[in-house]
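Blinded run. Sample ID left blank on purpose so nobody reads anything into the name before looking at the predicted structure. Input follows.
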Amino acid sequence: MAFQTEFTVIPLSELKACAQARKAEGSRYVQTLAVNTEAGVDIVYSFMLGDRMSNYKLVAVKESDVVPSITDEFLAAFIWENEIHDLFGITFEGISIDFGGKFYNVAVDKPMTVISPAQLAAREKAAKLAAAKAAKEKAGAPAASVDAELEAKLAGMDPEKAAKVRAAMEAKAKKEAARAAEQKGGE
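Blinded prediction complete.
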């Protein structure tokens, strides 16, 4: 049989029951992964049974949410739960081996949630452009121009990459203008 993997989004309230069900069916705990997103922290719990990897995803967990620990079912999860607490600021309730925020000795609180000023500016610009576009559409105005949509996409990119794309677009526009001038002069 070939390796299989599946992802299922579950609400925070079902995490404990999910871990209990995985334990009851004989699955083994593999890992817990956390990713910082615009909406919060996504947390993915992975379990393996035979050749099937089952991943259960909690979406947009907020710092104010309390996540129940699964260490009473799978003790090895204490490593990931302590790590996610220290690096992302997520609170876990009932960790069997709780380091109390001292699993990592980091210079910055919640370092995985820190974004650069350039990233913050890009996110704010993209949000403003999206809001302006939505307001125009709501008012019955035609959709924003292609340039505005492209600019919104560039605002969400890495600033260095966005600058390279803008420079390439400017060079292309200059070439097109020069071609148009040549054609007009040749007529």
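Unblinding after everyone has recorded impressions. The domain at 4-113 is CATH 3.30.460.80 (Beta Polymerase; domain 2).
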